[in-house]
Structure formats: structure tokens, C-alpha cells
Design brief:
By secondary structure, the protein is mainly alpha-helical. It has 40 helices and two strands. Among the domains are: 107 residues, Alpha Horseshoe (Serine Threonine Protein Phosphatase 5, Tetratricopeptide repeat); 98 residues, no CATH class. It has a two-stranded antiparallel sheet. α30 runs antiparallel to α31.
Length: 823
């Protein structure tokens, strides 16, 4: 009885203890749930209190009592609470499992606490039961790659080599991502070489390589790898499934490749069998199962009882998933074709997809459209868009933006606007700016205003480029009378001020170009007063205009003022420019020298040239033209002649416009001697006359009643208009005489059309002059240099070379200039 009672008491005690243990387990699970709920609710203090209670009230704890907490820290990337939990686990001297290490390092990596992750890895390394665990190293390596920290990556790889955990496809994929980030194509090839030497990459891994080659623009490698993937897909012999996150996962046994420094790289068959056994155990620990020791699964090796589906269903699912992967890889290569403008390969890929039964996706068609657009232009790209429309596919907004911009650049405004209307979401005003630029090129401010209105309705914020183009658009003058129309000027001023106010309202500060276009717009419209007001606003410390001052801006204002003959204002602005510290450039000095021609002040012009040389700018042809213009206007032809010769000695090549100005003024004053001197100088400088020179010389002689000389000079100058080479005139004499001496009136039209089409209007004028001389009965001489008029000009020129006056200010100045340039 006592024994029986003792036995009964023992049985009751055991049941009580079992119940107590069960209650204890439930309580610990509840503790984890409460802690997780507190963390999800954002109650960190309460979670910390519950964690301390868990540690104090339960003297015996295991890793399982913290799994849910660690999982939560991993999912929500809460490394701080994880470290708090881990500290408690260490204080309680809990035997930490492999899964806890994995979750902890994963949470630290997701939170960016790589130093703490490395410290935990070193602790784990000393634990012989968990040190061989490649997924942990892959997580750490992935975090280092994601942060683009090369130092951490090398540290992780060194740790992996030291632990001899090897590498698998996940490891290589992380290295591929790093190589793509570094734009290191040789590294990708090295990874490919290492992988293919150790084992045959899976279909999923081939896709990673195709992505890498495409990103790094290695079209040949991407294409060859794609063809290898096509062969593998249609040969079969693979299996994969989807993870919980919806990603493709390879179910083939991914045996880690030995480290390069591992002496056991070449193993015997027996050693490989042992290595396989270790790998299987490692996958079982992760909840994965490997049913074969071969590198590749064969669909026939999968047992029916392992999966509750038929073989045909497996093949169908395998085919669908494989085709999806293949379609993605085609799309990757197609995107690279778009970037590389390789439309030929893009078209080849599209045909291959269709022949394989792969229906190109919207993404693939968009990439193909971009490849065609970049290589062939928008016309062919529009044809691809039409094909997409037939398949009920709408191009991406980014593709529509590129199409619209391309049409704008080709000045096809209607097409550009139609693509703009199809865009759903705008990331900025870029396509509208391209449209405004086209409006500016075509001088269509009305279309630009419509585009701006559309931007306002779509709530698209204009940027500085938008305003630069708007000011440029309103700076154009469509008809000559607009500049002098007071009503038009008032409207223009309101428009320009409205744009500036809108710019200020949107917080866009003026750039150099926007301010320049604004001032140019006001100057073009004749709004000089408003232009000066805006310039003064820019000179003052007003934030909206503060950063827009510069030499080019002052040049814009000075040019407008000089053109408007507002010389006093130009001189005042020039002085203010100097006082503000803005350095004049060659254009500034040229504008101000031109201002001196208006006020007829040669001395000031020479002073400006002197300062121009001191600042390191060499006088050009337009500098001499302006100075000579001043002298000619004051009828100082002798000094103009000496200055012209000095310029020639200074390396300046005069043009016909310079001579035309002198001859015109001399003709107005009846100075035949000056005309003959400069005409001979022009001939010696090998400058061909134009119709204006012929007209001025002819009327100068006619006004002086030298009719015969007028005809003779007209003939000589006409011959020189055709060519300065007598041999050329001899070759063309028969052809031209037929046109000149023929009495049919149609020949005049023939002469005009013959040379105007070739852009040689002076030839037409010269032949028509010679034809007119022939009609008047004057003989035509084709040896212009043997003309008595030409000989007389040459002889008089040699006798009439004017000696430079050493006391002349201009001669002293230009002698100094020549000396400095030669030095």
C-alpha cells in the first residue's frame, strides 16, 4: 500500500511538474508575443520592461525564448532592440543557436550596423557548432555591397577565406552587384571564369550574368550568355520555385565552391562524397532539402511523393517560370541596346523572342523603341509605337518624354505636343523645355505661351531653363515695325515683367543666361529704360538677381545701347562696370570702340584700344574698321590710309566691307583720288570688289563727268568680281562672251539663275554689267590688268604712298602696338 501510494504520489508529482513546465512554456511564448506587440505599437520602453521581466522571472532560458523577438527585429530592421536583447542573452549565458546568430546578423546588416555585425561574426567564429554557415556570411557580404563599402567587403571576404566557407551563387551574385556598381567589367569576367570552372551556373544565375554584362554595356558577352540561357531553357534539367517574397529560387543543390586558397580544390571522389554529406546537413539545418548529389536536378529524378503534383504539372510550371526568366533577360539586353544605340541587335532580339514563342512585354517594346529612336530617329520609333498600340500597350512615360523631345529637336511641334499629351506623370519640365526651345528656333511665341499654360494646369514647376527660353522667345521681333510701335512695347514690357514675377514667385533665382535673355528681350523691343532698370536691380544686393552679374551681361546691355545710339547711357554703364569689378573682354572693347564711332571721337577710341592691348586682347579687323570709320566720317582719308597699312603690317586682313565704307564716303565727297588709292590698295591686298564698290566708283566718275573712265573702271572691277586671276578669265572667256554678247533677252534670266543657284550673286552682277556695257557699244576687254585705267592706278599708287607722320598720335599709338605684338 505504501509503495502503491508512493507510486501514485510520484505519478501526481510528475503530472504536476509536466503541467508546470507546459505553463512555463506558454508564459514565455506570451512574453515574446507581448514584447513583439509592444514593439509593433512603438512602445519601446514597455518592450524593454517586458524583456527585463523575461530575464528576471525565468532563471532558465533558451534560444527559443527569443526567436520571435529576433525575427521581429529582422523584419522591421530594429538593430537597437536586437542589441538590447542580445545583451540579455549573453548575461544569462544562453547557448545561442545558429538561427539566433543568423537573425541577429541579418538585423544588424539591415540596420547598417556593420561593425557590430562583424564583432558578432568573430564571436560566432569561436563557436565550433555554428562557424560553418555560409548564408550568414552572404548576408553580411550583401550588406557591405549594398553600402558600397569596399573596405568592409574585403574584410568579409577575408573572413570567409579564413573560415573556408567557400562561395555559392548567392556569394557570386553579391560580387557581381559590386562589380556593376564599380563599373568593373574585368571583375565580372573573372567571376564568370571562376564560376564556370567550378560548376555550371543555373538559369537564375545566368540571368544575373546577363544583367551584369548588359549594365556594363558588354553586348557581345550579354548576347552569348543569353543564347546559352536559351539553350538551357529548352534542354530542361532544372527546377526552381518562388520564395515567400515572390522571388525565383533555385532548388538545385547549390554546393559552396571551395576558396581559391583551399588546398582541397581538387578532391577525390570519396572526399567529394563527404563534402556532399556536409552540404546536405547544412541545407537541412536551413529547412531546405537536397535529394540528389548531382549538380543539376533532372525532372525525372523528383519523386512523386515528394511533391503532391504530377510530372506534367511540374513541367508546365517549370516552363512558365523559365520562360518568364528568359523574357526578363531578353529585356535586359534590349535595354542595353537602347543605351548603346544598337538597333540592329535589338531588332534581332525581338525576332528571336517571337520565334521562341516569347511575347515581348511592354518593357521590352519600350526598350526596343528607345533603341530605334536613338539609332534611326523618331520616324521609325513612331512605327514601333503604332505596333504597341495594336497590342494595347502604352509606352512608358519615360519613352514618351524621349519621343517628344526628339520631335521637338527636329522642330516637329505637332508630333511633340501629341506625345506630351499622352504622358501621365511628369518628373520635371524637361520635355516642355525642349518644346519651348523648338518654339524659340521657329520664332513661335504663341505656341510657347500655350505650352506654359499647359504646364500650369499640370502643376509642373518651371525651372531656370524654362525661364531662359521664355525670355529668349519674347526677345524676338516678328516684324520691323514692332520695335517702334509704342503699344507693342507696352505689351512686351508687361509680358516680360509677368515672366519675371512668376519666376520670383516660384523661388527661381536668375542665372547669367536668363538675365542676359531678359535684357536682350527688352533691348530688342526698344525698352531701353526698362533694360537699365533691370540691370540696376541686378547690381544691387537683391537675392532674386544677385548671382547674375557678369561681363557678358554688361556686353548685352552695352550692345543694345550702342545700337540704339544711347551713347551717354553706354558710357555710364561702362564706367559702372569697371567700378563693380567686372573685367571688360574683347567684345566689351569692340562695342565701346563702336560707340566712339557714333560720337566721332578718335582719341577716345585709341585710348580704348590702348587699354584693350594692356588687358591682353589683340585688335582684330573690326577694331581697325571702327577706327577707320571714325577717320572716314571726319574725312581724314590720309590718316585712314596710314592706319589701314599699319593694320596690314600688324597682320590684319582687310575685307571688302572695310573698303566699301571708305569708297562710299569718298564717292559722296567726290574724292576720286581717294577712291583710286583705296581701289588699288584693295587690289594689292587681293580683296575682290562687290557690287557696292562698283556702284560707288562708277557714280563718282559719272558725277565728275568722266564717262569713258566710268565705263572702263566698271569693266575692270566687274572682271575682278569674277576672278582676280587672268588665267581663270581666259579659260571662261568663250563661255561668258556667249552669255554677254547674245542678243536674246532670255540670256539675262539665264545669267541670273545660273549663278544665284550656286550662291555666286557677284558673278551674275558682273556679267550683267558687262552685258550692259556691250549693249552700249563698248568693247569688252578680258585682260583687266592691261587696262589703261588699271595701269594708271598702279603708277599713281607707287608715287603717292603717303609717308607716316611721326608726330601723329594715331601713328605713334599703332607703332607701339606693332612693337608689342612683334615682341
Amino acid at each position: 500500500m505504501l509503495l502503491r501510494g508512493a507510486a501514485r504520489s510520484s505519478s501526481v508529482a510528475c503530472r504536476f511538474l509536466n503541467f508546470k513546465e507546459f505553463k512555463k512554456g506558454v508564459t514565455r511564448n506570451q512574453f515574446q508575443e507581448k514584447i513583439v506587440d509592444a514593439l509593433c505599437s512603438g512602445e519601446r520602453d514597455r518592450a524593454s520592461t517586458l524583456l527585463l521581466e523575461l530575464g528576471h522571472e525565468r532563471p532558465t532560458l533558451s534560444s527559443n525564448d527569443f526567436i520571435s523577438i529576433l525575427q521581429h527585429c529582422t523584419k522591421l530592421s530594429d538593430p537597437l532592440f536586437l542589441m538590447e536583447t542580445w545583451k540579455l542573452m549573453e548575461e544569462k549565458e544562453i547557448d545561442i543557436s545558429r538561427e539566433c546568430y543568423y537573425l541577429a546578423i541579418q538585423a544588424l546588416c539591415k540596420g547598417g550596423y556593420l561593425n557590430e555585425a562583424f564583432r558578432l561574426m568573430n564571436i560566432m567564429r569561436d563557436n565550433p557548432s555554428v562557424h560553418y554557415f555560409l548564408p550568414i556570411y552572404n548576408k553580411l557580404l550583401g550588406a557591405c555591397v549594398q553600402m558600397h563599402n569596399i573596405s568592409y567587403v574585403n574584410q568579409c571576404l577575408d573572413l570567409m577565406d579564413h573560415q573556408m566557407v567557400g562561395k555559392n551563387e548567392i556569394t557570386y551574385y553579391q560580387l557581381l552587384k559590386l562589380a556593376v556598381f564599380q563599373q568593373n567589367l574585368p571583375a565580372v569576367h573573372e567571376i564568370w571564369k571562376e564560376c564556370t570552372n567550378l560548376y555550371k551556373p543555373s538559369i537564375i544565375f545566368l540571368r544575373k550574368f546577363i544583367w551584369s554584362f548588359s549594365k556594363l554595356r558588354d553586348m557581345e558577352s550579354a548576347y552569348l550568355t543569353l543564347q546559352q540561357m536559351v539553350d538551357m531553357v529548352f534542354q530542361g534539367g532544372f527546377l526552381f520555385s518562388k520564395t515567400a517574397e515572390g522571388k525565383m529560387r533555385n532548388l538545385r543543390l547549390d554546393i559552396p565552391a571551395p576558396c581559391k586558397g583551399d588546398s582541397s580544390l581538387l578532391r577525390s571522389a570519396k572526399e567529394n562524397e563527404g563534402f556532399m554529406h556536409s552540404a546536405n546537413r547544412y541545407y537541412n539545418d536551413m529547412g531546405m532539402h537536397a535529394s540528389t548529389s548531382e549538380h543539376y536536378f533532372n525532372i525525372g529524378n523528383i519523386k512523386k511523393n515528394a511533391f503532391d503534383i504530377s510530372k506534367s504539372t511540374v513541367r508546365k510550371q517549370k516552363s512558365i517560370a523559365a520562360m518568364k526568366l528568359l523574357k526578363w533577360s531578353f529585356s535586359d539586353v534590349m535595354h542595353a541596346c537602347a543605351v548603346m544605340q544598337n538597333d540592329v541587335l535589338a531588332e534581332q532580339l525581338l525576332y528571336q523572342m517571337q520565334s521562341l514563342g516569347l511575347q515581348p512585354s511592354r518593357q521590352t517594346y519600350n526598350a526596343f523603341t528607345m533603341a530605334v529612336l536613338n539609332a534611326r530617329g523618331f520616324h521609325d520609333a513612331i512605327e514601333v509605337v503604332k505596333i504597341m498600340e495594336k497590342k494595347n500597350m502604352k509606352p512608358y512615360d519615360s519613352t514618351l518624354v524621349c519621343l517628344s523631345v526628339s520631335c521637338s529637336r527636329n522642330l516637329e511641334l505637332d508630333l511633340a505636343e501629341s506625345f506630351l499629351d499622352q504622358i501621365s506623370t511628369f518628373e520635371g519640365p524637361y520635355p516642355f523645355n525642349a518644346f519651348l526651345e523648338a518654339c524659340d528656333a521657329l520664332d513661335l511665341p504663341e505656341r510657347a505661351v500655350q505650352s506654359l499654360t499647359k504646364m500650369k494646369k499640370l502643376n509642373i514647376q518651371p525651372d531656370i531653363r524654362t525661364y531662359e527660353l521664355l525670355f529668349s522667345l519674347f526677345g524676338s521681333v516678328n516684324s520691323p515695325f514692332m520695335e517702334e510701335n509704342l503699344m507693342f512695347q507696352n505689351d512686351a514690357a508687361k509680358q516680360i515683367r509677368a515672366i519675371d514675377m512668376d519666376m520670383m514667385k516660384n523661388g527661381v533665382q536668375h542665372s547669367q543666361l536668363s538675365m542676359m535673355n531678359l535684357l536682350k528681350a527688352l533691348g530688342t523691343r526698344g525698352l531701353v529704360k526698362e533694360m537699365i532698370q533691370f540691370l540696376q536691380a541686378a547690381e544691387n544686393p537683391i537675392p532674386h538677381y544677385q548671382s547674375s552679374l557678369g561681363t557678358s551681361l554688361y556686353n548685352t546691355v552695352l550692345h543694345v545701347l550702342v545700337r540704339a545710339k544711347e551713347t551717354n547711357a553706354a558710357i555710364s554703364i561702362f564706367k559702372g562696370m569697371i567700378s563693380c569689378g567686372a573685367s571688360p573682354d574683347a567684345a566689351t572693347y569692340t562695342i565701346m570702340i563702336d560707340c566712339c564711332t557714333i560720337i566721332d571721337n578718335f582719341k577716345s577710341a585709341c585710348t580704348l584700344v590702348s587699354r584693350m592691348i594692356r588687358d591682353g586682347f589683340v585688335p582684330q579687323i573690326f577694331t581697325y574698321t571702327s577706327l577707320i570709320k571714325i577717320l572716314v566720317e571726319s574725312e581724314d582719308f590720309d590718316k585712314a590710309f596710314r592706319l589701314l597699312n599699319q593694320g596690314i603690317l600688324d597682320g590684319i586682313q582687310p575685307d571688302v566691307l572695310l573698303y566699301n565704307r571708305i569708297v562710299q564716303k569718298a564717292s559722296e565727297k567726290g574724292r576720286i583720288d581717294v577712291i583710286e588709292l583705296f581701289v588699288e590698295q584693295m587690289h594689292r591686298d587681293r580683296v575682290q570688289p562687290n557690287s557696292s564698290i562698283c556702284r560707288n566708283v562708277f557714280f563718282a566718275y559719272v558725277d565728275g563727268r568722266f564717262y569713258k573712265t566710268a565705263i572702263e573702271a566698271l569693266q575692270v572691277l566687274s572682271m575682278r568680281m569674277i576672278s582676280l586671276d587672268d588665267n581663270v578669265l581666259d579659260e571662261r572667256q568663250a563661255e561668258y562672251e556667249h552669255l554677254i554678247l547674245n542678243e536674246e533677252t532670255e540670256d539675262e534670266t539665264k545669267i541670273t539663275n545660273l549663278f544665284i543657284e550656286d550662291g555666286r550673286e557677284d558673278h551674275s552682277v558682273a556679267l550683267l554689267i558687262l552685258r550692259w556695257c556691250a549693249i552700249l557699244g563698248f568693247p569688252i576687254s578680258w585682260t583687266s590688268n592691261k587696262s589703261q585705267w588699271a595701269k594708271r592706278l598702279s603708277m599713281n599708287y607707287d608715287r603717292s604712298i603717303l609717308v607716316a607722320d611721326d608726330n601723329s598720335e594715331s601713328d605713334r599709338f599703332f607703332s607701339t602696338t606693332l612693337t608689342r605684338r612683334q615682341a
